[in-house]
Amino acid sequence: MLKKIQQWRGKEPSGNYSKEDILQMPVPEHIAIIMDGNGRWAQKRALPRIAGHHEGMKTVRKITICANELGVKALTMYAFSTENWKRPKMEVEYLMKLPEEFLSTFLPELVEKNVKVQLMGNRDAIPNHTLNAVDKAIEETKHNTGLTLNFALNYGSRDEIVHAVRNIVDDVKNGKIIESEINESLFSGYLYSHALPDPDLLIRTSGELRLSNFMLWQLAYTEFYFSDVLWPDFSEQELYRAIATFQKRGRRFGGI
Length: 256
Fold this sequence. Notes:
Helices cover 44% and strands 13% of the residues.
């Protein structure tokens, strides 16, 4: 029983893995990450919280490149939730500048590495300067065929589901679809993530054990991995461990 709990929390027997080790078995097609612990990382060092977010930005770059090299097809990063607007104004303003800073710094490398950028979330409340930076990256990488880096920005799963229901209701009223056509597949097509497969692996850092309103519909059969490591300290080796744990699990999707 203890071993089962350890596996669920990501506590597989310790050890280092190489890229070659990981590539011995199929890797997850889509990895979603709840990047948690930036603030605590900064507080432990007597730094302002925004210093943790800045350091976490570097980890996004590092893990994106690593996942791309492993052949992962999609990487969804939970960057800013619909609930994060409750944070102090200065922190929110910085978080809204962070995508612009990240992309102005790393977009040339993402282009070179054949990474495609996408956005998932409610665009309405996102400042124009943030949207402009993201849209520029989306445009410049739209023909890339490597990993899709999907930023969940102003994203909340409940908001996403409500948004999908409203659009389906409108399309039924307008005669674009009929009620009998509504099924799980059609509903999924109305979600922000409709262009991507459901995640195979969810990683949450910092030791917290909750989903925080993240991809609730899409995570129905996703494998969960919880790491005690704070996001700025999450390394390529930590990603290898998460994937190695995933590779040891048997996915039955409700079957035997």
